[in-house]
Input
Amino acid sequence: MNTNSKSGPDKNGFPHYMLKEIYEQPEAVRETIEACVNSAGHIALPGSGISDAEVKKLRKIDIAASGTSRHAGLAGEFMIERMTAIPVEVDFASQYCYRDPIVEPHELAVFISQSGTTVDTVAALHVARKKGAKTLAICNVADTPLTRDADAMLLTYAGIETSIAATKSFTTQLTALFLLAAHISRVRGSSNAAVDAALRKARRLPDEIESVLKQDQQCLALARIFAQYESFLFLGRDIDYPIALEGALKLKEVSYIHAEGYPTGEMKHGPSAMIDESLPLVVLATRDRSDPASRLRYEKTISTIREIGERGTPVLAVISEGDTVTPKATPHVIEVPDVPVLLQPILEVVPLQLFAYHVAVLKGRDVDQPRHLSKSVVVE
Ligand code: BG6
Output
């Protein structure tokens, strides 16, 4: 039973499920937020099954997942560490199962899955349980092998996601991870004011995603320019690196074009040798003007864009509204609202989803059912 059957299995006039589900993200994020807020308006994870006493004792959080869900976990690492100061480790579920992970007392093992049936993720949860970790499943479906075997559950409310390429399940996973981090920080002593401020920022997300969706035609125009290329490099710093990975994965999944996500700061350690006019870059160059560390990262990223642009390499940049500097370094830009760093991933992934979708359509791909892929890998 899906948690929100409102989205139903028809395309509502969209040409593909993937585009419909990209456009359902404002409502999906809104529903996920409202499900994690109690009647007093505070963040509470009802029935999450982890007591405040256990949260207070937490010393480490492990996250294991597959595909797009693991990219959500990688972004969640930044959210949880910055809001709670608890160390977080993220792994491929298929690696976690076989590396005999060390699980210490007071450890929470989080398993993220849209379907709740991915065989590697369910197996990883069983390994963690056997080793004594408290287990939490973040899942889009209420009654699944993953949620049944976890100690606790945090549901996302993306509704039915039909397209094999995950989109709205990803942004609702990011939202759930942000709210989980805020909840843990409040239980461990952060002021209600700080957590309520985080909730206020999160509540603006649906409208901000709507404003990004208005850039769809710009994403189509950029897809027409970039669809000719045979390989891409996606770059992101800090919390934007998981989004670079996700943007690359989206393009690979639906258009079959090779793409690689890379930390922007790692370019000089190898990838720079590949860069020429035949290898376009997609760079996440957003910044939170109120955050000095974010501004510093942005300055480093813009100098990378300038340097690469001088080689004739085409650069597509995702930038924050009001950025007048980056458009001088590359004409190919997509703007997203200027939001706090920890919420940037939820907005900046949307243009990358649209870009991947339009490139795939231009190449005549089976967008909703890409070759060799399935919605959930239920056997090894
Ligand atoms: C793949 C899907 O099979 O499994 C991806 O094609 C998905 O879209 C991955 O991210 C993990 O699936 P789940 O259901 O565990 O999030």
User: Anything to note?
Assistant: The pocket of 6-O-phosphono-beta-D-glucopyranose is lined by residues 66-69, 113-115, 118, 121, 164-166, 373-377 (CB under 6 Å). Residues 38 and 44 are 6 Å apart (CA to CA).
